[in-house]
Amino acid sequence: MVYAIKKQKETTAALLRRFSKNVQQSGLLLEARKGRFYSKKANHRARKASALRKLERKKERERLQKLGKLPQKEIRPHFR
Prior knowledge:
Blueprint: H1 12-26, H2 28-34, H3 44-67
């Protein structure tokens, strides 16, 4: 844990600046930012079920495109 104790005749701004510097050097902020959007991995069974659902949707979409019930996928030119 990072902390800063106010020294004699130290302004609040200087104390805050010193504290901020200590937080930056400790790397606490980076660790907190890394974990911000962390989500636990789904278990094997859930991943497998999700992959199967995705395959089924893909096959159904291709089938409907072949029947002409869905518009064909447009291939857009790629410019750089």
